[in-house]
Amino acid sequence: MPLYKSQTLKIYNSLSGEKETFAPIHEGNVGMYVCGPTVYSNVHLGNVRTFMSFDVIFRYFLHLDYKVRYVRNITDVGHIVDDVDEGEDKIAKKARLEQLEPMEVVQRYTVDFHDILNAFNFLPPSIEPTATGHIIEQIEIIKTIIDNGIGYEANGSVYFDVVKFNKTNHYGRLSGRNIEDMLTNTRDLDGQTDKRNPQDFALWKKAETQHIMRWPSPWSDGFPGWHLECTAMSTKYLGNHFDIHGGGMDLKFPHHECEIAQNEACTGQTPVNYWLHANMLTLNGKKMAKSTGNNILPREILTGDNTILSKAFSASVARFFMLQAHYRSILDFSDDAIVAAEKGYKRLMEAMNSLKEINVGSKSTINIPAWKQLCYDAMNDDFNTPILIAQLFEGVRFVNLLKEEKESLNADDLHCFAKTMNAFVFDVLGLEDEKISDSTNDKLQGTVNMLIEMRKQARENKNFALSDQIRDQLITLGIQLKDGKEGTTFSI
Questions:
Q1: 371 near 424, Cβ under 8 Å?
Q2: DSSP assignment of 264-288, as one string?
Q3: 264 is in an annotated binding site
Q4: Which of 131, 334, 361, 463 has its CA 20 to 30 A from that of 46?
Q5: Higher model confidence: residue 142 or residue 491?
């Protein structure tokens, strides 16, 4: 019997504002779409947290024996700077500034995105479509929306008529907004745009002469609106009605609201049963922003090449840190917080290694089935990873008691305990055991410190070629040196 039949999963649905019992459209199958990155810059830590939340959700569905089709797109066109309908495409702007082809920008940052997610042990999605690969589908959806009387063409661009749509549907249902209030709080258009209403959004934009990314359409040479791509790709691979749509909290309005409107205008039905939104990540109590310097990239956590953290941290430590907060909660990233997380991670990994050495007892003095169900209860309560981690540390306590022979488990319970710990630590949370033995670590540290001293002497003797050679060869081995006021340190 598949595991999902014995577990009742409740999911917080942004559409209803309540936790609802999960019931897939097709028994044993889950269709999930998550808005992916816009590949015009290095993936930032907030993105990693969002995608990690859905990675764990994906993993838990697989653990429950569901067959999952997980679709996560790549936005490589159509996303205007500042998320509005007028202006310059983010990728085109980056291409112009760096004097590159737009697809060079896309390739560079798509590779970076995959490299970072691989480092953090993400499972790949079932399908990873791109916006540029689905221009034809987007044009067909626009045609249908126009035919249904909700889209209109103006000077080569096509817009979605929000006011007309709202006469028979509810625009703003997901975000809790009222169309009358939105119109009241929006300034008059003053004839500066082709839109009929301020809240109308672009389905297709006519490309200006300088616009690099453009495709032919029945209306003009141009490009699709940002919101349209997700409607096209989600419905193509999951159907007009599917189980789960996820993304960051910042996408709820206008992006996801517009998606719902497009789907309903095109197909006449609500597209998604459960809308899930992951919350934001702050840094030292403030919003992360490159402009203020309050920012750190995922790769900088792994290398230690930053001014925020005291040292480098492994991907699993960073992953463990993020999963200590519920995906719908704001999480603050700081040096103190990740140092504490590293200690907890090491305790957990030490227990996982000790678990292999526990001897079978003649009887069980710990109620393992009850503890096991508490682990499931945590994940069944809207994927509550911090509660799950608390239960896993109860498991760590069991391990220590078993090692000291203050408690015992018979063969069946010990097998169940070990299997459950491994399943939740490695399969569901996606952690990896990155432990280096103390003796190996000491030898490595001694060797690198010796090379740091040799490099220091070479620099004092003005032998900069040798100094650079030591640094560069250590980098090829995955060891990065960092020079500071207090001397030279290193990170793996």
A1: no
A2: HHHHSS--EEEEEEE--EEETTEE-
A3: no
A4: 131
A5: 142
Cα distance between residue 204 and residue 222, in whole Å: 7
- Measured at the CA of 38, the angle between CA 234 and CA 277, to 5 degrees, comes to 60
Q: Which CATH number fits domain 9-278: 3.30.428.10, 3.40.50.620, 3.90.79.10, 1.20.120.450?
A: 3.40.50.620
- pLDDT, tens only, 335-393: 999 999 999 999 999 999 999 999 999 999 999 999 999 999 999 999 999 999 999 99
Structure tokens given for 164 = 């007309």
Mean pLDDT value of segment 52-81: 93
Among 1.20.120.640, 3.20.20.210, 3.40.225.10, 2.30.110.10, name the CATH number for the domain at 282-435: 1.20.120.640
Residue 7: partners with Cβ closer than 8 Å, 6 or more residues away: 64, 376, 380
The b-or-e profile of 8-33 (16+ CB within 10 A means b, else e) is ebebbbbbeeeeeebebeeeeebbbb
State yes or no: 259 annotated in a binding site: yes
For the chain, what percent of residues have pLDDT higher than 90? Answer: 75
Share of the chain above pLDDT 70, in %: 93
Task: Please give the DSSP secondary-structure letter assigned to residue 75.
Answer: B
Q: Is 230 annotated as a binding residue?
A: yes
Is 35 among the annotated ligand-binding positions? yes
- Is the distance from CB of 81 to CB of 43 less than 8 angstroms? no
pLDDT-derived band at 437 (thresholds 50, 70, 90) equals very low
Q: What is the pLDDT of residue 94?
A: 87
φ, ψ for residue 75, nearest 5 deg: -85, 105
Q: State the pLDDT at residue 5.
A: 97
255 annotated binding-site participant: yes
